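Reopening this ticket.

The earlier resolution said the output was attached, but the attachment link was broken on my side. Pasting everything inline this time so it's all in one place.
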Amino acid sequence: MNYYAARGTALIKDPDQYSTDVTKCLKAIQLWASKTNVSPLHVVVLGGMGGRFDQGFSQIQHLYTATQDESLLNGRIYLVNPESICFLLSKGRNKIWAPCLPGGFGPNVGIIPVGHPATISTQGLEWDVTDWHTEFGGQLSTSNHIKQDIVEVDTSEMVLFTMETDRVTKVTATTEGPTGKENMVPLGF
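Inline output:
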């Protein structure tokens, strides 16, 4: 801790034993963002899918809870590791800019309904679907392949979107939710 404190990192003691470390971090980040008028604030969690399997599920849980609790985040969370990136797609039409280029994204993607079954339609994938019902215990869209620089997913419920990375360089996600409002989210490393 002394190493980080010596470099100006704020150290915050939070004795709450009913929150995960990620939840505590999100609350601290959101508090900072509210004081500095940064909105929306998008968070990249590096190494967010590594480690124990149960902790990986916990990270996916954080993606969902943060969308429902503005005290945690007013923006998106991206979970990134050397092999992939995942984030939530909102209900409605979503456009993801994901060129398959060296230093960009690999061909493999998944669209996974977590918590609720969903009906999805896609464009830009090798195996596009139309009004396709997906749920755990039924059909899942895994191991599909990106075939166009822009992938479109129309979904009836929030779903988890995963992409293989070559080396994450840039993602842009556009969401046209129930309000018709577009949300462009650039992400660069």
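Reporter confirms the inline version is readable. Residues 49 and 56 are 5 Å apart (CA to CA). DSSP finds three helices and twelve strands in the chain.
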